[in-house]
Amino acid sequence: MRLAAISDVHGNSAALKAVLDDIARRGVDLTVNLGDCVSGPLDAAGTMDLLHANPMPTVMGNHDRAMVTTPPEKLGMWEAWVYPELTPTDLNWLRDLPKTIEMDDIFLCHATPDRDDENWLDRRGDNQRIAARERAAVEAYAEGIDASLILCGHTHTPRMVRLSGNRCVVNTGSVGMPAYFDDRFDPPFIHETGAPDARYAICERVGGAWHVDHISVPYDSGAMQARALERGAESWAQALATGWFTPQS
């Protein structure tokens, strides 16, 4: 089994197309999507067109859930930006997404098995930056899951951790959002990957163990930066251009 896993596209149709093209070039048996498909100030309609044209097993992310469970007048900014672009077909597609999927010794979730908005392999560390979560906590989230390959996203942080029972948890990183600024916290939380590339993972079972490759795909983000600037989302444009928020010294 050779599997590609994508997550956290966040409406970045240019990054999604680049990743899908890269996956096709490498050849895989199956591609799966771990959610947070369209929220953000980019190209929700174009992203949905690509997802409809390339059907794949997909789980619901926390932003997908917000898009279809929150009254339009109460949507947060990430959803309010793009809600008018989505058709009833798009919204029904998002609404019908399952929270988790189990298939062929593989478990899919957006964040953790029980919550779509909880960090699994990472936590908010010192200086409001991402830090690796402690082993006991990582193991605890996987309690009761027998699948040998567990796939998640949400934190936009590519990482693989091997667990007890010959299992591993893989965070694919984000296809469409290489850095973000979360002002729901005081002080605000910043996450930077340091590269503008689109990220995904390829997992291949070899000799009874999963081999994991985290892939970085360069692409032209100019059109997506322009869309972000049109909506006053300067921080998104900077993240798409550089993968950073902090200025270069």
Characterize this entry briefly.
This protein has 249 residues and is α/β, with parallel strands linked by helices. It contains eight helices and 13 strands. It has a domain of 169 residues: 4-Layer Sandwich (Purple Acid Phosphatase, chain A, domain 2).
What can you tell me about this protein's structure?
The chain is α/β, with parallel strands linked by helices. It has a domain at 2-98 and 171-242: Metallo-dependent phosphatases (Purple Acid Phosphatase, chain A, domain 2, 4-Layer Sandwich), CATH 3.60.21.10. It is built from eight helices and 13 strands. The protein has helices at 13-26, 44-53, 62-69, 77-80, 88-95, 135-141, 222-230, 234-242; strands at 2-6, 30-33, 100-103, 106-109, 122-124, 130-132, 149-152, 159-163, 167-171, 179-182, 189-192, 198-206, 209-217. Strands 3-4-7-9-8 form a five-stranded mixed beta sheet, with no helix packed on it. Helix 3 crosses helix 5. It starts with a strand and ends in a 7-residue tail after the last helix. The model has no long low-confidence stretch (mean pLDDT 93).
Overall pLDDT score: 93
Strand content: 25-35%
Reading off the top of the CATH hierarchy, the class of the domain at 2-98 and 171-242 is best stated as Alpha Beta
CATH topology of the domain at 2-98 and 171-242: Purple Acid Phosphatase, chain A, domain 2
Low-confidence residue ranges: none
Provide the succession of SSEs.
Answer: EHEHHHHEEEEHEEEEEEEHH
Taken from the alpha-carbon principal axes, the silhouette is globular
CATH homologous superfamily identity of the domain at 2-98 and 171-242? Metallo-dependent phosphatases
Q: What is the topology, as strand order, of the major beta sheet? A: 3-4-7-9-8
How many strands? 13
Assembly type of the chains comes to single chain
Q: Tell me the structural class.
A: alpha/beta
